[in-house]
Design a protein that fits this description.
The chain is of the alpha+beta class and 268 residues long. The chain has a single domain (5-234), classed as 3-Layer(aba) Sandwich (L-fuculose-1-phosphate Aldolase), CATH 3.40.225.10. The protein has helices at 5-21, 78-87, 100-107, 118-124, 138-148, 168-191, 199-207, 209-213, 249-267, and strands spanning 31-35, 40-43, 59-62, 67-69, 93-97, 129-130, 153-156, 160-165, 193-196, 231-234. The chain has an 8-stranded mixed beta sheet, sandwiched between helices. The chain has a two-stranded antiparallel sheet with strand order 9-10. α3 (100-107) packs across α6 (168-191). Zinc ion (ZN) binds next to loops.
């Protein structure tokens, strides 16, 4: 369905309210954009609370990020949006936010790359982590460059998340799914155990993506790291074989005291 500029303005304002209400942004965080045509992008401006925007607050830019229309200033993160629109003809909307759980993974240097949930594998293949780049600089777009061709959701190290889709509603829902999946992944980490889908099951889901989401959907090949398939794993970021145990602060202090006392005994 082709939308008019007015409709897209109202949708961006609405998505701004959703990301704010869900706590995916704080202060002036995040930005949302939509493709108007092959010359122009409609985007949220810089320094505006995403939950309190009006349709007239938005700016129109060309594919080089130069402002064509609007009162406010263009966001410094526009280059990330433009990169995605240039690389992905199937994409007509981009949402960038800092949802706390998924951003926590990004700040821990972890991608959401485990084949834990079938619908996530179907929707995203996996959710990779782009290396850190200073926001608003070419460093950030260079870090995203190798990933935007294949992935609809990308974690950005020490920063946040970007999602893209054929329309604004779906780009927002992808952000919701990323944060929801980050919470599920965190629960498996707390439980200390993860049952990953087999490689065969993952391949079946990846092969079904085009029939679910249309022929423009990028093909994703399973690699050793994205998504990680097969069997039961101990959760955690190490080798997957180490034993973990929890100890209270009091017990830990007592253990240290005991060890020190032992040492002193040996010395005397
Ligand atoms: Zn950001």
């Amino acid at each position: 369905m082709i939308r008019t500029e007015d409709e897209l303005r109202r949708e961006i304002v609405e998505v701004g309210r959703w990301v704010h209400r869900q706590g995916y942004v704080a202060g002036y965080d995040g930005n949302i954009s939509a493709r108007l045509d092959n010359r122009r992008i409609l985007s949220t401006p810089t320094t505006i609370g995403k939950g309190m925007m009006q349709p007239d607050d938005l700016v129109v830019v060309d594919y080089e990020g130069r402002k064509i229309a609007g009162q406010r200033k263009v966001t410094s993160e526009i280059a990330m949006h433009l990169l995605i629109y240039k690389r992905r003809p199937d994409v007509h909307a981009v949402v960038h936010a800092h949802p706390p759980t998924a951003t926590g993974f990004a700040a821990a240097g972890l991608s959401l790359n485990k084949a834990l949930i079938s619908e996530v594998v179907l929707s995203f293949g996996c959710i990779p982590l782009a290396r850190y780049g200073t926001p608003g600089t070419p460093e950030l777009t260079e870090a995203l460059m190798p990933l935007v061709g294949s992935y609809d959701a990308i974690l950005m190290a020490n920063h946040g998340v970007v999602t893209c889709a054929p329309d604004l509603e779906r780009a927002y829902f992808k952000m919701e799914t990323v944060e929801h999946f980050a919470k599920i992944s965190l629960v498996t980490e707390i439980l200390g155990r993860q049952v990953l889908l087999s490689g065969t099951e993952v391949d079946k889901l990846l092969a079904a993506r085009q029939s679910y989401f249309g022929p423009g959907t990028p093909a994703i090949e399973r690699s050793a790291v994205c998504p990680i398939a097969d069997g039961v794993q101990s959760a955690g970021t190490g080798s997957g074989t180490e034993e973990r145990f929890a100890v209270s602060q009091e017990d830990l202090a007592a253990m240290v005291r005991e060890a020190l006392a032992e040492q002193l005994k040996v010395k005397s």
